[in-house]
Amino acid sequence: MRTQIHTLLAAMALLAACGQNKTSDNDDSRLIPSPEINKVEVMPLQRTTFHSQLSSNGKVSARARAELSFRTQGVLTAVNARNGEHVRKGQLIAAIDATAQALALQSAKSAMDKANLDLQDVLIGQGYRPGDTVTIPDAVMKMARIRSGYDAAEIALRKAQYDLEGCSLTAPFQGKIADLKLGKHAATTSDPFCTLIDDSTMEATFSVMESEYHLLQKGLQVQVEPFFGEGHRLGGIITAINPAVDRNGQISVTASVRNDGTLVDGMNVRVLVEKDIPGQLVVPRSAVVIRDNMNVLFRYSGGKAQWTYVNILHSSGDSYSVEANADRAAELSPGDTVIVSGNLNLADGSQVKPVK
């Protein structure tokens, strides 16, 4: 009997233990995760001046450029410049043998002298005094010039002078010599003898998207940077904006740049267009993320992140100018606190904690 009682007590104890374990196993409090709090950086939103900066690749060309050629072909008797050498306006660059042209000029001068004598004879025959240029009627003088051959001789003389001048190549403006390939005693060809470049001021031509057209205006300052010298920038101003969009959706822009010797005709450059736009809501680029293929930033309020759709109005290297996306009924105002980092994995309503 005593043995049966002990067995019964052991069974009751076992059942009690099993009941306790079942209760513990059904306790769901351990299965409910505590909400994760994301650490983020925030900033107050306020209206300020946005420093807009457009970047585009372009090419520079000399302000003045001319291909110089002789009017006639011949053998070079003088070459007074070399590639890269600076010449003054009117300076003699090269000359070809002008013997034939000089003789032609002498002959034209003699013919001119004879025609002048013949003109006087015709006028005397008409009853006028030689050298009278006041009382002779225009019709009589015209007839006398034709009969004497004076007009034809005068034209021949001008042509002879023109041909002789064409044997010398002078600089039409100051600049640098380029593309010179022939030397003294060489025969010229129909190709240009050399190119004269005035690179003291360069023109930088570049393109911008049509969506950026409203940011441009004549007189706006730019920075021009050669690709080989990162950090070395030359200042300039926009001088022309082509009022047409090409088939690629781009607009051609020209800026004038004062050359310090760094730029070379035809060089590829990077052009930065800078403009200050007041009264903008400015945030770092890191504040804007992509959700549903749209631009979103998160406002901070009451320990939570609030999903806010935005439109990007302007962009620069490190910041955006934004506005609330009215099509998505979004709201954004100065004084809001926006999350600028730690936002890559946030969802609407995520619990966040600002950190310094």
What does this structure look like?
This protein is an alpha+beta fold. The protein folds into three domains: 40-50 and 279-354, conserved putative lor/sdh protein from methanococcus maripaludis s2 fold, CATH 2.40.420; 54-63 and 198-277, Efflux pump adaptor protein, beta barrel domain (Elongation Factor Tu (Ef-tu), domain 3, Beta Barrel); 72-194, no CATH class. The protein has four helices and 18 strands. The chain is elongated.
Layout of helices and strands, plus pairs?
Blueprint lengths: L1 H24 L12 E7 L2 E22 L7 E4 L6 E2 L4 E5 L2 H27 L12 H11 L1 H16 L2 E3 L4 E4 L15 E16 L11 E6 L7 E8 L8 E9 L9 E17 L4 E3 L2 E8 L2 E12 L3 E6 L12 E5 L10 E3 L2
Parallel strand pairs: 1-18
Antiparallel strand pairs: 1-17, 2-8, 2-12, 3-5, 4-7, 5-6, 7-8, 8-11, 9-10, 9-12, 10-11, 12-16, 13-14, 14-15, 15-16
Helix pairs in contact: 2-3, 2-4
Give the overall pLDDT as a whole number: 87
Integer count of domains: 3
Helix content: 10-25%
Instruction: Evaluate the radius of gyration.
Output: 44 Å
Profile the largest sheet.
Answer: 6 strands, antiparallel, barrel
